[in-house]
Amino acid sequence: MHAPMTSGLKQMIGARARRIATPDASDITRDATAGLAGIVTGRTNALGQATAAGHRLSRSVRQTRWGSGRSAGVLHTVVAAFVAGLAMTTAALSATKATPQRLSEIGQRLVAAYPDHLAGIEDGLLVWKDGTKMPLDDGVATKDFETLLNSADIEDQFYAPYAKGRAVTPPGLNMDPGRVRHEPFFRKMYGDCDDPRYLAETMADVIWLPTRVGAKIKISKINGIAGQLQKVSDELDKLDATFVDFLHPIAGTLSCRTIAGTDRRSMHGYAAAIDISIKHAHYWRWGNEDGKKKPVYKNSVPMEIVEIFERHGFIWGGKWYHYDTMHFEYRPELLAD
Asked: What is the distance between the alpha carbons of residues 99 and 182, in angstroms, rounded to a whole number?
């Protein structure tokens, strides 16, 4: 059901935007489609996604009013698209659990991303190669954002689509693709960093920027992460020398800790993430230690760096509403086409 609805929505928005033919029409199409596709494809936090779409679309309206003499037409497009999105949201909110089709698609993505560990899916369960079975869905129809973060099931990890490539606009409200994690899934896959055997059994060396820096860093070899990060490093090494300042010295890989302000394990605790240089980084909690202020998006990291990481399975924290622009973590399931 979701794919045809998304396709039809794209066609509707695109056709109306083309008829308006303003310099900002493509922006309207992009923001509307991206925001509302999240509603169509994401069951959990659907209301939050609708709100995020509204914020993105209202920004487009404000920008277009001053840049075009056809603001009424643009406004009509935006309102029509958002109303359609709210109707879809209402339908999504009425569901009691994810559809079998959605669970199957999620399971297939995970199996393709982590073939060393996962065998397949069976009756809504993710089957591990050791025979362990994990529910993909906990049956809770809707969760507010804090509940998503603190009590995510596996399906919740896909609540927001990750957009590969160059970021065009700041992320919408609470759009943090990859930041919602089902901890038992990652603990089973990567192990417990509190175990003294962890480092010896799971870590491997990567030569960071081989010709420009040549530093040896450690990261998990599980799922081939070390090999993928070495590919990232080799490509980054070929960029212009001006990029080195963004990349060296790194801020860290393995760190057996929780995420700041939470009890949740950081992906650094699984050695499945790297923070590049802090010198040009921005983080939503800096100057907002209690997390109560609304994040104001900032970024200085060049997109050339981001695109190289993404090509090798790493997502970027700069594509989060709660941004962390030095942070990259290995999440190939979110990058699958």
From this structure: 19
Cα 300 to Cα 325: distance, rounded to the nearest angstrom: 8
CA atoms within 13 A on the CB side of 272: 23
Strand blocks (E) in the chain: 118-122, 125-128, 133-135, 203-208, 215-220, 273-275, 314-316, 327-330
State pLDDT tens for residues 1-33: 334 334 444 444 444 333 334 444 444 444 455
From the list 234, 205, 201, the residue with the least C-alpha distance to 219 is 205
- pTM for the model: 0.75
Tell me the pLDDT of the chain averaged across its residues: 80
The one-character DSSP state at 269 is: G
* Sign of the C-alpha dihedral computed for residues 25, 34, 170 and 165 taken in this order: negative
At which residue do the structure tokens 């899916």 appear?
Answer: 121
SS3 232: helix
Enumerate long-range contacts of 214-217, CB under 8 Å, 24 or more apart: 215/248, 215/249, 215/250, 217/250, 217/253, 217/274
Q: Could you give the angle at the alpha carbon of 36 between the alpha carbons of 33 and 38, nearest 5°?
A: 110
Alpha carbons within 13 A on the beta-carbon side of 333? 23
Residue-wise pLDDT tens digits, 278-321: 999 999 999 888 778 899 999 999 999 999 999 999 999 999 99
CA distance 308 to 234: 10
Please give the sequence-ordered ranges of beta strands (E in DSSP) within 24-131, or none if there are none. 118-122, 125-128
